[in-house]
Design a protein that fits this description.
With about 325 residues, the protein is α+β, with helices and mostly antiparallel strands. About 60% of the residues lie in helices and about 5% in strands. The protein folds into 3 domains: about 130 residues, no CATH class; about 70 residues, no CATH class; about 55 residues, no CATH class. The protein contains 14 helices and 6 strands. A 4-stranded antiparallel sheet has the order 3-4-6-5, with helices on one face. The longest helix has about 30 residues. The relative contact order is 0.09. One of its GO terms (molecular function) is metal ion binding. InterPro entries: DNA_primase_C, DNA_primase_lsu_euk/arc.
Length: about 325
């Protein structure tokens, strides 16, 4: 992947290739593609919004169905492109840029690996059964579907596992794969598969665990290799162009842009007392009242209140005037 100035930019896939390509790219190698410098950064920021949104959702303890909706919304909002033919390119480019950004330390690698695998899991679940099988073929899995004879011989055991998870017993048209148990450690640890003679019987709706394990292993190895390339050559070769962008992206602020005009009215100085009574949260209301009573706040309190007033829409001049009037 080569980063160029704005004059040149070509598609990674032709229209025919795009149809036959996997629904989810497996990111095995950097694409033979020229990327504009502004796209290099903007695509990465858009994907980073998705990954940080997933991280925030998981840290807040969102339920599986809530996380599925969150991931769908995050992807739709951030990974779209004005040209439909470029959506796949954006997906691939953004992944490889962030791979370069997050390969540089062990902590960065762990976070990126975890979030990319979580994203892959959700995107895989959104696919049709046919598309999921296509991804399995791309990984060249050695597992084989259980035939009817074998299914009938273990049907009761499979039903016991399903019922233990609160699911109905599998029917004759259910698809199960027979895989070495060590390839699905997550399912084994949770006792969500039937194991016999060293093999785990994985239902089609559980295949994501198998595929995600392979995806994680592949990405983990490539992150280490990317770090070696970054350390040995890329960082120095691109020190005047890409290196500053790469080193800044992992700590980029992705919150609201307070420099842009707001869609709602700002609070004026004459309204501040009434707004404080009716709408301030208790912590800010306490700081506000203490400032009015004592004409003094400690440094930390002034900083918190000042940033809060900025966030709710009080402009800088009014905020300074308010603090001066209360202190004096």
């Amino acid at each position: 992947m080569e980063v160029v100035r704005p004059q040149s930019h070509r598609n990674l896939f032709s229209s025919n290739d795009a149809v036959s390509a996997p629904t989810i790219p497996l990111y095995r190698s950097a694409p033979p593609l020229e990327v504009r410098l502004e796209d290099f950064e903007s695509f990465a920021i858009d994907r980073l919004r998705v990954l940080k949104g997933i991280s925030d959702g998981l840290s807040r303890g969102k339920k599986p169905d809530e996380m599925e909706k969150l991931v769908k919304d995050l992807w739709k909002m951030n990974m779209r492109h004005q040209h439909a033919s470029e959506v796949l390119n954006k997906d691939i480019i953004s992944h490889f840029v962030l791979r370069l950004v997050y390969c540089r330390t062990e902590d960065l690698r762990k976070w990126f690996l975890s979030m990319e695998c979580a994203l892959f899991r959700y995107r895989f679940r959104f696919l049709t059964t046919e598309a999921q099988r296509a991804i399995m073929d791309e990984f060249d899995l050695t597992c084989k579907a259980v035939n009817n004879v074998e299914f009938e011989s273990i049907k009761e055991k499979l039903g016991q596992v399903a019922r233990s998870m609160g699911q109905p017993s599998p029917t004759v048209d259910a698809i199960f794969y027979k895989v070495p148990f060590e390839e699905v450690p997550e399912l084994v640890a949770r006792r969500q598969v039937f194991i016999s003679q060293g093999y785990a019987y994985v239902a089609m709706n559980q295949v994501v665990s198998l595929v995600a394990t392979l995806f994680r292993s592949q990405l983990s190895k490539t992150l280490v290799l990317t770090n070696r390339k970054w350390t040995s050559s890329i960082r120095e070769q691109e020190k005047h162009r890409l290196t500053p962008i790469v080193e800044a992206l992992s700590s980029s602020y992705l919150g609201p842009d307070f420099s842009q005009p707001r869609e709602y009215a700002e609070i004026s100085l004459k309204d501040i007392d009434q707004v404080a009574k009716s709408s301030f949260p208790l912590c800010m209301r306490h700081l506000f009242d203490k400032l009015k009573e004592d004409h003094h706040l400690k440094h930390g309190g002034r900083m918190q209140l000042g940033l809060f007033l900025k966030g709710v829409g009080l402009n800088l001049d009014d905020a300074l005037a308010f603090l001066e009037s209360r202190v004096l």
